Amino acid sequence: MSKRITIRKAEGMWSVRAGGAVLGESRNALELTEGDYAPVIYFPREDIAMAFLDRTDHSTHCPWKGDASYYSIVTKSQTLKNKVWTYEAPLEDVARIKDHLAFYTDDTTVAVERI
């Protein structure tokens, strides 16, 4: 594993909410820490209500994780553009995050929390 990135099981039950709806809960989430950034919780795809997500054509590249694909969250009142990302074919050192989703929580529209 890259010295820059560590991945461990996120202890306890984790929840993600947006637009008043619970998008998912998981006891199998992963916590990824990268450099000096705040840890990010990655939820197994099977623990997320994918009906709330709409794939977009947005993508980014990370030299340590690979190419990320994005989803928007569709709620009753709004569409939250590109708030979800996933590494569908992550680099070998971070292969554990394959089939997991992470959520931007940089404003009040999406909440990821331990419950």
UniProtKB/TrEMBL annotation:
Residues 15-105 form the DUF427 domain. This is Uncharacterized conserved protein, DUF427 family. It holds the Pfam family NTP_transf_9. It comes from the Bacteria. Gene3D superfamilies: Domain of unknown function (DUF427). It comes from Shimia gijangensis.
